[in-house]
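Input.
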Amino acid sequence: MRHGALEEYAPNHFMVHDIRVRPFIRGEGDVEGNRFVMTSWRRDGLMARLAERGLVMVTIESLTESLPELPAPFPIADEPRWQPLGHPSERWSYYDPRQRAVVACETLTQADQQGVWLYPGCMVRRRRGRGQAEWYRSQVQGTHTLQYTPIDDDSALLQGLAQATRYTHDPITVRAGENGAVVVTIPLLPRAHQAVLARCATGDRDGLVWQCHPDHLHLVVGVLARVNLVLTNSESNPHA
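Output.
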């Protein structure tokens, strides 16, 4: 995550990383130590004045714009292929673009051999015993076998979300939460996207349920738009 002379860590709340910004933020809000809370409406003007002095004001919007967009989706085969288990404790799962979620594969027995059915092209995850899960891109190799290319967690999620764009999904509903907050349940996002989202919303332990103040919903919308997720509510048109 990049830092500037002034960095927004929550809506209108900034961390001062460079003391040269202090003359510019005086009168624009409340300053306490290295924290600055902007209360004036001159946000764009402050950013422009800082830029004239070569000082960067990192905002939630600018961080959102720097987030990776979805890659081109890999095609997924229509027919699955059999993958034997390398060990009885081995467990497989895959990113289902229809559900936009990681789904566990059912372990089956075929010709006295345990294994799972996998669709070539899908992002698949293998866990051995209690070890760390590893992601792969599955590809056809030969007539009956599959080849696996290692891929990091975030790239696997981005590719899974990209493959999801080939299917129709209903917009994600914005719900009313407690104390006037709004709540959304979304697919799991890559860590960089979650980090920016956490600056304008609060997520649950799994990173699936997020809530924010209604005034900050547009910031949430911006982050989700980077991965083609659309929000709506029952009384209005989609937010993105």
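Residues 81-164 form one domain.
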